[in-house]
Amino acid sequence: MFANIAPSAGTETPMFANIVPSAGADNSMFANIAPTKGKKGAKRAIALLFLRAGRKESIFCIPLHPISNLKQTSMQKNLVIVESPAKAKTIEKFLGKEYKVLSSYGHIRDLKTKEFSIDIEHNYAPEYEIPADKRKLVSELKAEAKNAQVVWLASDEDREGEAISWHLYEVLGLQPDTTRRIVFHEITKTAILHAIETPRDIDMNLVNAQQARRVLDRIVGFQLSPILWRKVKPALSAGRVQSVAVRLIVEREREINDFVSESAYRVIAQFVLPDGKTLLKAELNRRLKTKEEVMDFLSLCQKATFTIDDITKKPVRKSPAPPFTTSTLQQEAARKLGYSVSQTMMIAQRLYESGLITYMRTDSVNLSDLALGTAKEAILNTYGKEYYKFRQYHTKSKGAQEAHEAIRPTYIANAEISGSAQEKKLYDLIRKRTIASQMADAELERTTISVSINQAEGKFVAVGEVVTFDGFLQVYHESSDDENENEAEGNLLPRVQTGEVLTWKDITATERFSQRPPRYTEASLVRRLEELGIGRPSTYAPTIQTIQNREYVVKGDKEGAERTYAVCTLTPKGIKETEKKELFGADRGKLIPTDIGTVVNDFLMQYFQLVMDYNFTANVEKEFDSIAEGEAEWTKVIDQFYKMFHPIVEQATAIRTEHKVGERLLGTDPKSGKPVFVKIGRFGPMVQIGESKSEKDDEKPHFATLMKGQSIETITLDEALKLFELPRTVGEFEGKTVTAAVGRFGPFLRHDGKFVSIPKSLNPLSITLDEAVALIQAKREKDAQSFIKRFDEEPEMEIRNGRFGPYIAYQGKNYKIPKDVAPADMTRDDCLALIQAASEKPATKKRTTRKKA
DNA sequence: CAGTGAGCGAGCTTCCGCTTGACTT
Fold it and tell me: Residue A755, CA: closest nucleotide via C1'?
């Protein structure tokens, strides 16, 4: 039935071919809306619609200094609306008091949050609403607009920005003859004044491209997610961006699992030059497969003559990296400063709000003329003219919209800033990267010395690199994820001559294993998504958060395993063979898929290859571009997509299966003779014994949660059955039983109504009474330390010291004690007053958005 | 923080992109 939408053996389909659910449908999806001459009608209609917005009269209509012409009224003369309040503040300074500048804080209108909000029957008409947290802002803007003679819509120049302007136009009830649309690319006085002089219309083609993007994402997200709720687990989600992000991680994990490590011997010799003391280290230019080969080679070397047969010197140039975009900033801040993607963005936001850097959500590598000029000046002043080189960078990433500049300091000359240590570090990184991007190439000389062996095959080679002119390297050196990428770097070689005969000091062959593919880090995932043109600068950090919130992936702490490797050394005393141990495969903070992520991914791959295709976003972006160019109607593009997508949704929904997606039968329980399953339950992966629906069986099935590190893909019947031994009685302590179990937050002990976590080093299945008692006593000790004070007359109240400082615990709730109060001196009344004050404050009502903390 | 989960049932969950707050539990 679904044969024709089954994953096609890993090939990336160029368009939507071979994924068409039913025979006879148009395979080329958007083929019939490709640019054709006959489509001008729609374009003209829209153009006509918006001619009324004042195409002709908008240009040069408003004189810049119209003071004398205008009557003195209380009316504000000009209202400018931008997207960001920080930007508004800056611009207001440039424009003077004739202009009031306000911010829309991004979009002011969107599809309803709780409903599908797309009228499929009526040409995909979107149902927009003003979100609750924007209502107050919108009424303020409306009042200001009414009170202004001219409203200037100055949102960004990209698709989303154009839509923001259009929504403002509609929602604020603006009039064509008093509304202007302007854009500027840098926040300087000249650029803004120039923008004011050259207003244009709202580009409805661009707006429609945005509506298409919005509607498509809603269709995908809101039609796929409910399928997952039914087939896998409630409250899951799927989407054009997040599902592909999960796919990348799942597939990488599979590559790692399938990876077979191979070993080979790397041979390194230390030679002594004819002067009798200088050493030269060189590596054999081939690797040896087996130990036998190593032994043969080393014994040949014992009697061999080693001669320098070649010295080559080659100049090498290195060029600086372009200035930062959001994605490259996130990568470098992770590599150099160890910041997470969201940390980087928060710190950058503060720098931006303090006016220290340009906007931090950008995909552009472009620098403004102003920035180019000041960078040049800074380089000439500090390093001299041989260090300067004018460079212009071009954005290569797919789907870039380039509404902003690259991320750079607002004032490049400004080397020192005030702020937190983190802010200073990030600022320094941004500044150095910006300056380096306008600096000269570094020049290096790479020397390769080759040493021949008269008895055996191969040559020993030494590579060294010397910087002859540091150029941009004086300021900035881009890091790489691959640590052992350039070993030659900075390696100085001794002076030698061709024909010199060397004696060996020692020759060592070390067994090395080929490396499995690396797991994604947050930053490397962002880089991959950007390469694929999936997601935008404003969504990289939230997307990573989402796939973790849904528990599709976790930041892993994989413990490494130990392995031994062989080392064979030839010294004047003979050949020595030793074994050494190393840890491998350890991974901290890398992204690892969970069972849920894997099951959801496999399910989506089975049915929805259409949206799971790595090229899906790139393909629809092409369609959005043609809408923006006025060559296609947005509703037709969406219709083409929907006619293809929705039937698959219906088919996937109609599948009636006995078992849930990802369910696996492990075998039979020897005690009851009932089947044992693993599957994704309401609370995650679990094992189940028996099925209640069989006959009138009064016996309910039994359930157990999988432990950390176990997977429904790999767990065995024995391991699964072991889980049913929990909760388990460990023994008695102080007359009360001690039990061990696994709960929501991991393994724990229970004793006398109190809970104690079991650390990773111990297992609840095997923990002994002695170990348990030690844990209980350690917990008591810790509690005693955190205890500060108790009142006899109020046994439910206690002053304690916690992670966030001193607090009062009272009736199951905690209340923070302010810094200026000494907790030990507090009286009962002090405490009650504090509790009273805290409960009067409007408690945080925003519980809905952050259910899992 | 804490051992959840078989159903005659109520109602909820969800997307991607723009943008900042209020929170210090």
Answer: B2
In whole angstroms, B23 C1' to A835 CA is 18
CA distances for A3 relative to A538, A654, A810, angstroms: 38, 16, 62
Cα separation of A523 and A331, whole Å? Answer: 5
Give, in Å, how far the C1' of B4 lies from the CA of A684: 11
> In this complex, which residue's CA is closest to the C1' atom of nucleotide B18?
A106
> Cα separations (Å) of A264 from A258, A287, A558, A568?
19, 6, 25, 12
Report the predicted TM-score, pTM, of the whole model to 2 decimal places. Answer: 0.86
- Between the CA of A67 and the C1' of B2, what is the distance in angstroms? 71
Confidence bin at A62 (pLDDT 50/70/90): very low
Of these residues, A99, A359, A387, A476, which one is catalytic? A359
What span, in angstroms and rounded, lies between the C-alpha atoms of A91 and A80? Answer: 9
Amino acid identity of residue A661, one-letter, is V
Is residue A359 part of the annotated active site? The answer reads yes
All residues at 6 or more sequence positions from A153 whose CB lies less than 8 Å from its CB, including other chains:
A81, A165, A168, A169, A174, A179, A180, A181, A182, A202
- Which helix (H) or strand (E) covers residue A80, if one does? strand A76-82
pLDDT digits (tens, 9 = 90+) for A739-787: 888 877 778 888 888 888 888 888 888 888 888 888 888 888 877 777 7
Sequence-distant (≥ 6) Cβ neighbours of residue A530 within 8 angstroms:
A327, A363, A397, A398, A540
Nearest-nucleotide field for A537 (CA, C1')? B17
* pLDDT over 50 at A57, yes or no: no
* Average pLDDT of the residues in A507-522: 97
Residue pointed to by tokens 């770097």: A489
**What nucleotide is nearest A690 when CA is compared to C1'?**
B6
CA of A244 to C1' of B6 (A): 34
Question: In 10 A of CB A87, how many CB atoms?
Answer: 18
Q: Name the least confident of A202-211, A247-256, A502-511, A701-710.
A: A701-710
Looking across all nucleic acid strands, the nucleotide with the smallest C1' to CA distance from residue A684 is B5
Nucleotides of B under 7 A from a protein CB: 1-7, 12-25
Q: Specify the amino acid at residue A795.
A: P
Least Cα distance to A62 among A238, A247, A193, A226 occurs for: A193
Q: For residue A806, is pLDDT > 90? A: no
